[in-house]
Amino acid sequence: MTKTRNDVCGYPVIIQKYKPYSNGTSNQKWNCVEDSKAFVAFHSTALDKEITAANYAGICTSSVIKEENVDQPGYYYLAPTGKKKTMLCLACGRSMRAEKGLKQLLPGLPFLCASGSKTQKQFSRGPFKVIS
């Protein structure tokens, strides 16, 4: 943005619905610096920033997380038996939303996307097959 001498300094702010996840929401975390009277955006952990970037790029979060369960936004579907939940990150969930009748996961449930999990062999898609 360009400013002229008489213009008041200001920038637009976008208000979003709050997402109560621990990771994947670094764009909603700010820090107030009292001395300079400024806000610093993306005030979060490196993992949170990486998961947020993967979500916005449409890349499976298992490429960032490896084999660790973390609280992040995602989807799940029930196996045909109705007993086992298969959990997917946002990118993988978006790529197959219509196929499986996915439901959104509630915050506070740590998981690793089934796409990148070594233990869930029946899920054949890899983490990079969802890039659009």
How far is it from the N-terminal to the C-terminal residue, by CA? 31 Å
Number of helix segments? Answer: 4
Question: SS-based structural class?
Answer: alpha+beta
SSE pattern: EEHHEEHHE
What integer is the average pLDDT? 78
Element layout with pairings:
Blueprint: E1 30-33, E2 38-41, H1 46-57, H2 62-65, E3 74-78, E4 85-89, H3 90-95, H4 97-100, E5 103-104
Antiparallel strand pairs: 1-2, 3-4, 3-5
Give your account of this protein's structure.
This protein is of the alpha+beta class and 132 residues long. It contains four helices and five strands; from the N terminus they run E-E-H-H-E-E-H-H-E. The longest helix has 12 residues, at 46-57. The model has no long low-confidence stretch (mean pLDDT 78). One of its GO terms (molecular function) is microtubule binding.
Please supply descriptive tags for the structure shown above.
132 residues, alpha+beta, three-stranded antiparallel beta sheet, two-stranded antiparallel ribbon
Q: What would a concise description of this structure say?
A:
The protein is α+β, with helices and mostly antiparallel strands and 132 residues long. 20% of the residues lie in helices and 15% in strands.
